[in-house]
Specification:
The chain contains 6 helices and 15 strands. By secondary structure, the protein is of the alpha+beta class.
């Protein structure tokens, strides 16, 4: 059963629930949908495992999520919870944070926060997304970037393919989220390293999320040194073509 209320008023209810009594929660920190995540349309789940010391303080947190912004917000929140001191020492528990955006957009967040008191414990944060800006990615301006080269090992092993990256920049143009949506490990490492060299103009409409596609192609005849061609359609697409390796390379060169 979901119950909706302000987290700051949840303390007495938490202590009255059998599944949580042994934790003896003394303070629950208020929680909001991360503004940057909402602006970028990010949602998802974070699994947190927290260690509490004998003084009732959270001393260690392990967080798992595909979205760095959500993981950071959840870890920061649980780190401010406090518990009654325990003579028996430390204990550990797991909490799931669910960040969900409604289908209907709104200028204001219009948030609801809820606890699911059944095990496993879940904190659910629901907010309205901002109005959709379908053309946001096309208005992102790249000021500077390092040249992109085909990874040498990928060329030698004839690996080619597409890498898709999900990028979020804040209001200052700083990359705050960079997730790999797909791609071969050798190619995605090269793509993410290259994208981290990009510098953006601060976006006029604030935090912006967009996808970047790197396309790696091995084509033409084998040449030494390898022939490479790179084309940029920033910020959405980078195409890198390279000549394939020689079948029997001349080791005397």
């Amino acid at each position: 059963m979901w119950r909706f209320f302000n987290l700051g008023l949840a303390l007495s209810m938490l202590q009255s629930v059998p599944g949580l009594q042994k934790y003896s929660v003394t303070r629950v920190e208020s929680l909001h949908y991360p503004a940057l995540a909402r602006a970028a349309g990010l949602q998802g789940e974070v699994m947190l495992t927290a260690d509490v010391d004998s003084d009732g303080k959270v001393v260690h947190i392990e967080a798992t999520s595909t979205r760095a912004i959500l993981k950071e917000a959840a870890a920061e929140n649980i780190g401010k919870w406090t518990f009654e001191p325990r003579a028996s020492g430390t204990f550990q528990f797991t909490v799931f944070y669910e960040f969900v955006l409604r289908e209907k957009a709104s200028v204001s967040p219009d948030e609801n926060v809820s606890f699911d008191f059944d095990l496993p414990h879940t904190v659910r944060v629901v907010a309205s997304p901002p109005p959709v800006d379908a053309d946001a990615g096309s208005r992102v301006h790249v000021i500077r970037h390092a040249p992109m080269h085909y990874p040498a090992l990928a060329r030698q092993t004839r690996i080619q393919g597409v890498v898709k990256l999900f990028v979020v920049i804040d209001q200052f143009g700083k990359v705050v989220e960079l997730d790999v949506e797909s791609g071969h490990p050798l190619l995605k490492d090269a793509a993410t390293q290259n994208l981290r060299s990009w510098q953006f103009e601060p976006p006029a409409l604030g935090p912006t999320a967009f996808e970047v596609t790197y396309e790696f192609v091995s084509e033409g005849k084998a040449e030494y040194p390898p022939k490479e061609d790179t084309r940029y359609d920033l910020p959405k697409h980078i195409w890198i073509a390279v000549s394939p390796p020689e079948a029997f390379p001349d080791k005397s060169r």
